[in-house]
Fold these 4 entries.
Entry 1:
Amino acid sequence: MTSQPETTVTVRKLANGRWGFVVKFRGVTYPVQGQFTSQLQAIAAGQAVIKAMDRKA
């Protein structure tokens, strides 16, 4: 039985006070993306990236 590696979106507050996200998709970690003014925007953008990556795979 083989399972796919975990897919996650982690939202972080950046040093400049803005929000960004880190995506871990199928075992690959992508660096912090974005300069969002709210945490909710960063969450939504991260989820959209995961959905787009799922469609390509």
Note: The chain has one helix and three strands.
Entry 2:
Amino acid sequence: MSKTFNRAQAKAYREEYLQLQQDDQHKRNVRAELQVLGRFRDYMQRERPTTTTLGCLIAAVDAYAEQLTGSPHALRAGSRDAKNSWDE
């Protein structure tokens, strides 16, 4: 093997390693945001500060969670598959 080939391989390996690190960091960040959003959504459903803002706020939280994960049911209690996709 030549030095050029070895350098190209090392560069490709490093780029793949950095991409995997970035993907893992992104998953950790999304998991943390979903945890906070889930607590906020539960609070909004249980405490019900006002009836007029409740639906709008929960819909906004669900829309943001869907934007993060791609699943419209990411924060609903019955949907474990969307949460588990970020627990890999």
Note: Residues 3-84 form one domain.
Entry 3:
Amino acid sequence: MTQEIEKEINQLTLKELSLDAAKLWSQIEEATQSEEEGLVEQLVQNLIAVQDGIETKIDAIAWVVDQLNLDLEVWEERKARVVELHDQIIKRRKTQLSQIKQGLIHLHTVGLINDKSIGKTREIEIRDNPPKVAKLLIEVDDEDFPSEFRNIKYLANNQAILDAYKTGKDVSNIAEITIGKQVRFQVKSGRKNVNKQTTT
């Protein structure tokens, strides 16, 4: 194989290489039928070169995926540390804000400030919050609990629907089932079922 052909193969995408391999198989079949031995030998050499290029390209794609996964892990860790730092600051600020508000409510409760305290440009007003249910005195499922105060929610059991679908039950009138695709990258092994797999 000349350096020009090798360079050309290296520049092709996996899709282009796969199409070339399929085309070469076709040409080999045609040349075999026409009994052109020299041409068959050349086409087989070209096919071997293309298949080698495909294998190299597959390894390169898998290597890039490994690097991207490692990079993602690093950035996820950095993000987690930054989020943790911001969460701590937010928590401190919320605590400070709550302490100021509770202090003002205490001053109002003991009569040291009025409902409205006026400054030079701002004012502070103490007023009642809207009413809220603090505690139920009867359990919701108790028969004495008035039905008018119940909020019944029905949620679909998606897992049960999928389990039924997997067993062959027709659920087409209940739900639309979709099956996506995923790509797995694995380390090549001589033995089956011992491949280390990572899923994207």
Note: The chain has one domain: 3-152.
Entry 4:
Amino acid sequence: MGRCVLASLLLFASACAHGPAQGSESRVVVSSAELARQTGLKPWAISLPFGANEDGTDLVLKFLDRAETSGARFVTQLQVVFVTQEEGQSLECRTRLSPDGLPPEEKEARVRMVSVTGKPLALLERVAQPYAAMMVTCQEVLMPGTTVTATTTSKGGRYDGMGPSSDPSFSSGGLRTATRCGSTPVTRYRYQYGFEAAAGYTPLNPQRLLAARPGLVLVQSDAECIPRPPHAPRNNRIEALAFGGVGPDAALFVPAPDEVAASTLEL
């Protein structure tokens, strides 16, 4: 009975947890923590440090590729962490990336306003960031065309019982309409958190992620900022819990549930 339940869970994960596409069974599945725990696989912490001016979509794809290389079968509690400061206070600001379709309580993050002066954090405010893009425009134009006419005659200039024939003739000077399209550089704006803008970070693009990993739809939560724990890493990073595979023996750098093994892997 237990094996049947586990098999059903694995099938459910592949079909509904927005993980691998068909024909990509070795791909890691981004799932809920509850589903991953029920597989009985060993959990461990995994992280990918990153610096300034990084693209969130590229980072997530790299993170998942390296998680697969490490042998992980499931990834849960995926989040992007920024180490920053405001008013002299060292902070960790983070957003979670959860599979679309999870219950709201698993995707919701509390926005924590912490400040030494008691004011709301400016790092949690949304700011408009300009970026260059190309805009395609099309318009109809009039172009010189060719007019085709037909002259009807009888063969040999007389009726011979075979019926009339049509000889086409061509003339120029007519006009026709055509559609022409072109690309024009434009400036667009994206709205992101102050701590993301300060790091030059480009937020995750769900369409690009879906194109690279069909079936994987991740939803970004609201951000939260908390005082940085004393022993936490000092670098920006993507981190998660991985299930399956073998992580090195090392101390976890984030508090983990009791069932999580004391191991972590920095990608």
Note: The chain has two domains: 18-128+191-266, 135-182.
